[in-house]
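Q: Hi! First time doing this. I have a protein sequence and I read that you can turn it into a structure. Is that right? Here it is:
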Amino acid sequence: MFEDLSRKLDGVLKRLRGQGKISEANVAETLREVRRVLLDADVNYKVARQFVDDVLRRAVGQDVLQSITPGQLIIKIIYDELNRLLGTQNVGITFAPMPPTVIMVAGLQGSGKTTFCAKLALHLKGQGRFPLLAAADVHRPAAIDQLEVLGKQVGIPVYAERGAGAVDVARGALEHARQSARDVVIVDTAGRLHVDEDMMREAEAVKTAVQPHEILFVVDAMTGQDAVNTALAFHQRLQYSGAVLTKMDGDARGGAAISLRATVGVPIKFIGTGEKPEALEKFHPDRLASRILGMGDIVTLVEKAQEQFDEEKAVALESKLRKAQFTLEDFMEQLQEVKKMGPLNQVMGMLPGMQRMPENVTVDEKALGRIEAMIRSMTPDERRKPQILNGSRRKRIAAGSGCTVQDLNRLIKQYEQMQRMMKTLSKGGKFGRMARGMRIHP
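A: Yes, that's right. Below is the predicted 3D structure, encoded as structure tokens:
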């Protein structure tokens, strides 16, 4: 997400970092480059111009020109303005004082609207809510079937009436929620390939019928300026309360995210970061600004780790590490925990400075899959005591995992090196202090 934008901005801002003295002239030149980078990222030209003007107005003040580290201070100003442009803080879902809360979801066909409904339902379920999905997209072929499949996948019931109109489905879902003690109704409405009058009238009729507490507009982040134009057209008719950016894991240039808040004036509430039901994040403007400027997003990374964190397992693992009893079984379990956090490229992207890595450097997730396959091809005894792996056993494991004996030898060698390191740390008493310092507490 935003790799290209981050890399280009880093290249421009590098000239200011560490400079002992700067002038209005070189600040203005740098900001012209920043504006060019934003336009390349498909940011609305009015938004890009206003952003640069706001930064320049603050940057040419005496506080900056006389600062000990003026270059770093200007980067801080850019971060502050970018954060302000994106909305300054996360805005959550507004829940009704008397359940059920009705959330209407709108957007163009192909934007990921139906998938988002299921993701949102799973997200709310994780917060202790009891959502109901309403299949009010009665025009797209198989839309109801898709929502039912997704609902089954995430363990959320779906209300559907085949042959009924969208308004009747929405009303029926609301009544069903009241009768079945469901405290949130997520209404999936129809999308079209473009904004048209029939679509808008139907959406307005659904809004009038169920009086939603939230209307979320789902937009494909990869559509650039078209996303902003569509968002404006929808807002004029529905006055939605929040936006959702999907497909942020693709090659989106970032312009929609930066422009949407400024042009439409509604908060971005969620971003979709993948196809899996769990791939949904709350939108935090300050964290996104930090990612764009290459400062990483450690807070989100820790939150993802906490979601997979098991206190009892962590204590048991720490004990094993102290005694240098960390087996290949434990190693595989830790790999699986890391994989649950999402695609490794996304996880790595939350680390500071990752945009300075060469463009062609990527995390090889297949390599982790090969390691897991090799460990799974071992017997329980072999995983716990890899020293018993003789030549014939290694050939069997390599053949069973689809890897080479050399791959297996490399894995065993790395494991043995790790074991020796743990023994050294344990003897010096350093490991206990290190483990306590590294432990994450929810």
